[in-house]
C-alpha cells in the first residue's frame, strides 16, 4: 500500500526532476568538451574549473531528488599525484555512480556509451578510458591507456575502477581483475555501503535495474556511505605481480567491509549464468576448474584458433591416457599443487584423458558458445572414416561439457541414433537439438542427486545471485578449494 501511494505521488516527481537535472547538465558538459583533445590533457582553465563545480552541484541535486539526501563520506580522498587510481568495491548498482559524479573521476566504459544522447556528453566530460568490444586488441590498449594516465604525475584526473568487473549482491568480494594494478602505482581503496533496511540497492537477476530504480525512488530516504581507506603503495614484488597486488588490496577492503572473499571472477559469473539448452549444471566442478586454470595463467590468450590447435594436438594422442607427470609436461608447467588439482578433476585410476581437459577449457573460455564446444569435442573423438562417435564417447563429451551423467546418455544416444547405426555425427546431434531444444529437462539430464558441498568446496550464491555447487571427484585429497562462506 505504501509503495502504491509513493508510486502515484513521489516516484513521478523524482523521475521528472532527475531527468530535468540531466538535461540541465548537458549544455555545461557540451561547452566544456568542445575542442578538447581525447589524447592530451590541457591545464584546467578557470572557466572549466567553474563548469566542473556547476556540474557537481547539478549531479548532487539529481541524487538528492532521488532520496540520497545525505552522503556520508569517511576518510580523506587522495590527490591524483598521491593515488592516480581509485579502486572501488563492492560494485552492486548503477547508484555506484554517485561517487563518480562527486569527484568527476575518469572511469572505464565501453565506446558505445559516448553515442548515447545527453548521457554520452556527460560521460565524455569526465574523460573516461573507452573500451571497444569490436577491437580484439582492446584489452591491451585499455591497459596501456590506464598506465599512461596513471604515470602522468597527477596531470590526468584520477581513474576510478571497479576491479570486480561486474555487479554482485554485496555479500562478498569476488576476484579483482588486474587492470587497475598493472601500472604498479599507488591506489586508494574506496568502500561503498548502502545501509538501507527497506530496499537492497543492488542490480541482480532477481532485482532488475527497472525494479531497483522504482523501489529506490519510492523510498523516502536512501542511505549511502563512501569510505576512503589510506593509500596503498605497492611493494617491488607487487609491482612485478599485479595478481598479488590485487589480492592484497582485496583483503584490506574485505576486512574493512567485514565481508568474506571468494576466488571466483567476472568470467566465472558468465560461466555460471549461461542460459539455453546447453548450459552449466548446478552440480559441476567447472567453476573450480576455471579458478585453477586462471591461477596457472592457462586461460590467457586462449582463442578459437588456440583451442582448435589443442584439439588437433590431443587427437594425435589417439585416446592415450596420461598420468600426472605426463599431464604436467603436456601443459608445459611444473608439477605444482594447482596442476595436481586440475588432474584430480579428470583422473580415473591414476590417469586422465586430455581430451576432457580441452573440452572443459573450451567451456570456461567460451561459456555462451556451448555448441562450438560440443563440435570441438566431436572432432577430437570422431572416427576418421565417417566423423562419428559411439555411445561411450558421447558420454565423455556430455559429462565433461554439460555435467550429464552416464546413466542418462543411453536413452539420449538412442534418441539421436534414430537409424540404430550405433554411432552419431555432430550433424545428427544438431538435428536432434533443433527438434528437441529442451532435451536437458526432457531426458532428466540434471536430475542426478546433487552432492552436498563440503566446507572446503562451498561456492556461495553471491555474484549476481548465481549458485553453482561444484564437487570435485575427490575434494578431500587437495587443498586448492578454499573455505568459503555460504550466502
From TrEMBL:
Feature: compositional bias, Polar residues: 454-465
Gene encoding the protein: lpcat1
Family: Belongs to the 1-acyl-sn-glycerol-3-phosphate acyltransferase family.
Record-linked PANTHER family: LYSOPHOSPHATIDYLCHOLINE ACYLTRANSFERASE 1 (PTHR23063:SF57), PHOSPHOLIPID ACYLTRANSFERASE (PTHR23063)
Region span, Disordered: 451-487
EF-hand domain location: 404-439
SMART domains noted in UniProt: PlsC
Coiled-coil annotated residue ranges, if any: none
InterPro entries assigned: EF-hand-dom_pair, EF_hand_dom, LPCAT1-like, Plipid/glycerol_acylTrfase
Cellular location(s): Membrane
Molecular function in Gene Ontology: 1-acylglycerophosphocholine O-acyltransferase activity; calcium ion binding; lysophosphatidic acid acyltransferase activity
Pathway: Lipid metabolism; phospholipid metabolism; Phospholipid metabolism
Annotated GO biological process: phospholipid biosynthetic process
GO CC, alphabetical: endoplasmic reticulum; membrane
Protein name per the record: EF-hand domain-containing protein
Amino acid at each position: 500500500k505504501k509503495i502504491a501511494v509513493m508510486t502515484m505521488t513521489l516516484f513521478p516527481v523524482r523521475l521528472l526532476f532527475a531527468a530535468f537535472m540531466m538535461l540541465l547538465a548537458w549544455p555545461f558538459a557540451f561547452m566544456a568538451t568542445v575542442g578538447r583533445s581525447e589524447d592530451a590533457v590541457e591545464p584546467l582553465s578557470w572557466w572549466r574549473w567553474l563548469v566542473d563545480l556547476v556540474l557537481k552541484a547539478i549531479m548532487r541535486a539529481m541524487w538528492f531528488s532521488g532520496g540520497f539526501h545525505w552522503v556520508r563520506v569517511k576518510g580523506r580522498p587522495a590527490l591524483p599525484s598521491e593515488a592516480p587510481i581509485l579502486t572501488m568495491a563492492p560494485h552492486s548498482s548503477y547508484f555506484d555512480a554517485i561517487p563518480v559524479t562527486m569527484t568527476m573521476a575518469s572511469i572505464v566504459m565501453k565506446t558505445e556509451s559516448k553515442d548515447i544522447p545527453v548521457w554520452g556528453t556527460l560521460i565524455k566530460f569526465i574523460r573516461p578510458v573507452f573500451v571497444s568490444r569490436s577491437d580484439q586488441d582492446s584489452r591491451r590498449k585499455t591497459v596501456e591507456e590506464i598506465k599512461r594516465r596513471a604515470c602522468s604525475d597527477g596531470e590526468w584526473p584520477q581513474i576510478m575502477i571497479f576491479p570486480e568487473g561486474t555487479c554482485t549482491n554485496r555479500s562478498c568480494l569476488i576476484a579483482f581483475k588486474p587492470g587497475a594494478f598493472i601500472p604498479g602505482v599507488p591506489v586508494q581503496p574506496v568502500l561503498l555501503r548502502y545501509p538501507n533496511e527497506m530496499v537492497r540497492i543492488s542490480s541482480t537477476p532477481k532485482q532488475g535495474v527497472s525494479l531497483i530504480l522504482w523501489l529506490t525512488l519510492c523510498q523516502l530516504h536512501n542511505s549511502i556511505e563512501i569510505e576512503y581507506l589510506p593509500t596503498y603503495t605497492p611493494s617491488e614484488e607487487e609491482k612485478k605481480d599485479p595478481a598479488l597486488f590485487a589480492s592484497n588490496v582485496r583483503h584490506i577492503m574485505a576486512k574493512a567491509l567485514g565481508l568474506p572473499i571468494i576466488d571466483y571472477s567476472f568470467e566465472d559469473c558468465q560461466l555460471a549464468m549461461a542460459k539455453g539448452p546447453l548450459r552449466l549444471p548446478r552440480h559441476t566442478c567447472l567453476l573450480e576448474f576455471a579458478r585453477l586454470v586462471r591461477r596457472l595463467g592457462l586461460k590467457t590468450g586462449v582463442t578459437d584458433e588456440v583451442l582448435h590447435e589443442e584439439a588437433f594436438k590431443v587427437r594425435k594422442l589417439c585416446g592415450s591416457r596420461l598420468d600426472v607427470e605426463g599431464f604436467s609436461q603436456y601443459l608445459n608447467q611444473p608439477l605444482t599443487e594447482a596442476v595436481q588439482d586440475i588432474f584430480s578433476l579428470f583422473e580415473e585410476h591414476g590417469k586422465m584423458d586430455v581430451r576432457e581437459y580441452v573440452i572443459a577449457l573450451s567451456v570456461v573460455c567460451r561459456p555462451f558458445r556451448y555448441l562450438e564446444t560440443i563440435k570441438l569435442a566431436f572432432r577430437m573423438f570422431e572416427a576418421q572414416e565417417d566423423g562419428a562417435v559411439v555411445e561411450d564417447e558421447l558420454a565423455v563429451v556430455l559429462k565433461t561439457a554439460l555435467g550429464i551423467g552416464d546413466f542418462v546418455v543411453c536413452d539420449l544416444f538412442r534418441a539421436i541414433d534414430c537409424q540404430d547405426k550405433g554411432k552419431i555425427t555432430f550433424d545428427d546431434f544438431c538435428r536432434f537439438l533443433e527438434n528437441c531444444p529442451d532435451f536437458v529437462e526432457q531426458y532428466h539430464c540434471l536430475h542426478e542427486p546433487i552432492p552436498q558441498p563440503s566446507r572446503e568446496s562451498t561456492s556461495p550464491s553471491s555474484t549476481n545471485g548465481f549458485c553453482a555447487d561444484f564437487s570435485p571427484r575427490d575434494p578431500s585429497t587437495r587443498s586448492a578449494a578454499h573455505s568459503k562462506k555460504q550466502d
